[in-house]
Specification:
Helix content: 25-40%
Strand order of the largest sheet: 1-4-2-3
Distance between the termini: 30 Å
Structural class: alpha+beta
Radius of gyration: 15 Å
Number of strands: 4
Number of helices: 4
Length: 146
């Protein structure tokens, strides 16, 4: 383990997301040209890998007592996978931020950060810290101190 310095950069993950009236969740990873479907009342890990980061977010919302319906979600961006820029944290933070908005859950930003981290720790099984999710939720363009 080394030192880390979280910072907002000019890379992004973009989400197109709409709520559904049932419990079905349909995901499309544009960069991978791959899709995945699940129901939010039967969450089981996928051998594909990438859907687990998104299902982990849904798992955390449900464990925290939020009653959410299904959703359609397409996402993609320009954060390189495996380059040390925490694309997984960007996906988790982006999805939890979007679900908070479309389902009007009223969750504060720090709680979103904590749930995004727990989703990776508990569902994906990666013992990551909290800084990557934190900067994804709180980072701003041209932040100034003081």
């Amino acid at each position: 383990m080394g030192f880390v310095l979280p910072a907002a950069i000019d890379k992004a993950i973009y989400f197109a997301i709409t709520p559904r009236c049932d419990n079905n969740c349909k995901l499309f990873a544009a960069d991978l040209n791959d899709s995945f479907e699940f129901t939010n009342d039967k969450l089981t890990r996928s051998d594909k890998g990438w859907p687990n980061y998104l299902m982990g977010v849904v798992d955390q919302l449900i464990k925290s007592g939020y009653n959410i319906k299904g959703f359609n979600c397409a996402f993609g961006g320009n954060i390189p996978i495996g380059a040390g820029l925490s694309s997984s944290a960007a996906i988790e933070a982006g999805l939890i931020f979007a679900l908070n908005h479309i389902f009007d859950l009223g969750i504060d930003k720090l709680s979103l950060v904590k749930m995004a981290q727990k989703s990776e720790n508990e569902f994906v099984g990666v013992n990551c810290g909290i800084m990557d999710q934190y900067i994804n939720i709180f980072g701003e363009q041209e932040m100034h101190s003081g």
